[in-house]
TrEMBL record:
GO terms for biological process: cell wall macromolecule catabolic process; defense response to bacterium; killing of cells of another organism; peptidoglycan catabolic process. It is an enzyme of class 3 (hydrolase). Pfam families: Phage_lysozyme. The keyword Transmembrane applies. This is Lysozyme. HAMAP family: ENDOLYSIN_T4, SAR_ENDOLYSIN. It catalyses: Hydrolysis of (1->4)-beta-linkages between N-acetylmuramic acid and N-acetyl-D-glucosamine residues in a peptidoglycan and between N-acetyl-D-glucosamine residues in chitodextrins. InterPro entries: Bacteriophage_GH24 (IPR051018), Endolysin_autolysin (IPR033907), Endolysin_T4_type (IPR034690), Glyco_hydro_24 (IPR002196), Lysozyme-like_dom_sf (IPR023346), Lysozyme_dom_sf (IPR023347), SAR_endolysin-like (IPR043688). Residues 155-185, 204-249 are annotated as: Disordered. Residues 215-240 have a biased composition (Low complexity). Belongs to the glycosyl hydrolase 24 family. Its EC number is 3.2.1.17.
């Protein structure tokens, strides 16, 4: 895995370019983009092309160290951030760091946070925070946690995010009749109405046929009242027959009819709201 141009730019930004050897705040002789080593001596001068070559040479062992020491998969942003970190603190310091230990345990958030702890340096024999290091660690942490934008996949063809492509309109497709919610709701309402009508007609016919076959009870036999006295005429009364009690529809049939009527109402409301939604969705 190689450092991306974005990662190289991050390193260049914080290292800066110096074409003549100088001592950094820790007293280490440095030249180019933060290049150090026994080959850097006071009064040494290089060109910008030589500085680029030194940077490329210095990146290789740092990249190899990150690949060797990190045991979990890395995306490009994570790799770039770690290479920048190792370029600054050194391979051995990275190997012993809490950031690496957390990362290899799968704690990416904790590893990114641990990067920010490396913002101090010994200056004049005193360990103190360095503003430039604090800014660099914050930038490396942000890059480490920044998700990599995946390429846009169109079928089998990958299109880079920054490619010049012709945009197409992907407007919502108007459903056909079989998919129309209005038609579906009307179908449900019609079916429920037919079922309710059929059930009501059958129930009425059943009641009429049963009521027509009911026989009126025979009149009661005349009886004698109490004697008012000897020779008094005997009065007789007829007990009127009780009218037949009309049969009520069974409770189950009434419940079914009520349920079907509720279903019809809901289906009609569904049709109304579906039509409104279709009009709002597909109007031009």
């Amino acid at each position: 895995m190689k450092t991306s141009p974005n990662g190289v730019a991050l390193i260049k930004r914080f290292e800066g370019l110096e074409l003549e050897a100088y001592q950094d705040i820790a007293g280490i002789w440095t030249i180019g983009y933060g290049h150090t080593g026994p080959d850097v001596k006071p009064g040494m001068k290089i060109t910008e092309a030589e500085a680029e070559a030194l940077l490329k040479r210095d990146l290789k062992p740092r990249e190899e160290a990150v690949e060797r020491l990190v045991k979990v998969p890395l995306n490009q942003n994570e790799f770039d951030a770690l290479v920048s970190f190792v370029y600054n603190v050194g391979i051995e310091a990275f190997r012993k760091s809490t950031a690496l230990r957390r990362l290899n345990k799968g704690d990416r958030i904790g590893a990114a946070e641990a990067l920010t702890w490396w913002n101090k340096a010994t200056v004049g024999g005193v360990l103190r925070e360095v503003a430039g290091l604090t800014r660099r660690r914050a930038a490396e942490r942000a890059l480490f946690l920044e998700p990599v934008n995946p390429p846009i996949v169109k079928g089998e063809e990958e299109v880079a995010e920054n490619s010049r492509v012709t945009p197409i309109e992907d407007a919502p497709r108007r459903p056909n009749l079989a998919e129309s919610r209005s038609v579906q709701g009307a179908t449900v309402a019609g079916g429920a109405g037919v079922a309710a009508s059929t059930l009501g007609r059958n129930t009425a016919q059943e009641l009429e046929s049963k009521e027509a076959g009911v026989e009126a009870p025979a009149p009661a036999q005349p009886g004698e009242t109490a004697e008012a006295g000897e020779g008094a005429p005997t009065e007789t009364t007829e007990v009127p027959a009780e009218p037949p009690t009309p049969r009520k529809p069974p409770i189950e049939e009434a419940q079914i009819q009520l349920a079907l009527m509720i279903l019809i109402v809901l289906a009609v409301l569904y049709v109304v709201f579906a039509r409104i939604d279709d009009w709002l969705r597909y109007r031009r």
